[in-house]
Design goal:
The chain is an alpha/beta fold. 48% of the residues lie in helices and 13% in strands. The chain is built from 12 helices and 8 strands. It has an 8-stranded parallel β-barrel with strand order 1-2-3-4-5-6-7-8. The protein is globular, with a radius of gyration of 20 Å.
């Protein structure tokens, strides 16, 4: 009897220890910046670079130009794991001038190149593309966007890339302005390759509660961060992100955190920024 008891208990204890260890795994922190800054970032413990779609994947440029950038990335001390600034403003996602077919063709090139470069996340902010034209039905725009999202997600799946929808504050865009609004749209798109981003700067700008992160946490696959004042680098004005970090912890968040901020002095701010984030994450 005692022997059987130990056989049952030991795996349970081992499993509990495994879970505890996985929970202690640090969240990778990166910066939305040029790949050329990778060496400086590596020195202070950053894990990856978040580049721009147009600058790094260059979907409108010939393959030869991308090959040069791909070679630079291969020799970089840090990988490019995410790209933002996705759809150009002249390619409209909603409204009477929506050009879904052109967007999907653009996305196909971007996703194919992302896969080659090891990019896992494509951030869909693109306020210029998705802003609803004056006088256009919001309900119709929403339906257009969901249709586009479903089609885009299928292409992303083919290239093993995840699109994350970035809610933007109301001073930057008039559509999808909160984690809650974005979460409902992601739920309707209902595809594992089209998920949600929580940008703590945009949340702070529109006073969105951390509870939105808790509610839609299972959909959140990426996070952006900057201080509310001046969209400053974390640690500039010592703003408190802990309520948002605690909300992420409640959801068991396993993604990355990218600093998307206005840098005054990159070289002197990068060590302060990462230490600020790590300290607040652990408190």
């Amino acid at each position: 009897m005692h022997y059987l008891l130990y056989v049952v208990v030991i795996p349970i204890l081992f499993s509990a220890r495994s879970v505890a260890k996985s929970e202690l795994k640090p969240i990778p922190i990166g910066i939305c910046t040029n790949l050329a800054n990778g060496e400086k970032m590596r020195q202070y413990g950053y894990a990856y670079v978040e580049e721009g779609v147009s600058r790094f994947l260059v979907p409108t440029k010939p393959e030869e130009e991308f090959e040069v950038l791909l070679n630079e990335a291969a020799n970089s001390p840090l990988p490019v794991k995410a790209c933002n600034s996705f759809i150009p403003g002249n390619l409209k996602s909603v409204g009477d001038e929506a050009v879904h077919q052109k967007i999907l063709e653009f996305a196909e090139i971007a996703f194919r190149r992302a896969q080659r470069a090891g990019v896992e996340i494509i951030v869909f902010g693109s306020g210029g593309s998705r802003s609803i034209p004056e006088g256009f039905s919001r309900e119709k725009a929403r339906a257009q966007f969901i249709k586009l999202g479903k089609e885009m997600a299928q292409i992303a799946q083919k290239y093993n890339v995840t699109i994350v929808l970035e809610p933007l504050n109301t001073t930057e865009c008039n559509f999808i302005n909160s984690v809650s609004e974005g979460g409902e749209i992601v739920k309707e798109i209902n595809h594992p390759n089209f998920m949600l981003l929580a940008d703590l700067y945009h949340m702070k700008m529109d006073d969105e509660s951390p509870e939105s992160i808790v509610k839609y946490g299972k959909l959140i696959k990426h996070v952006h961060i900057a201080e509310k004042e001046d969209r400053a680098v974390p640690g500039t004005y010592n703003e408190d992100f802990r309520p948002y970090f605690n909300a992420l912890k409640k959801t068991g968040y396993k993604g990355k955190i990218s600093i998307e901020a206005r840098w005054k002095d990159f070289n002197t701010q990068i060590p302060v920024a990462i230490e600020t984030i790590k300290t607040q994450l652990n408190n």
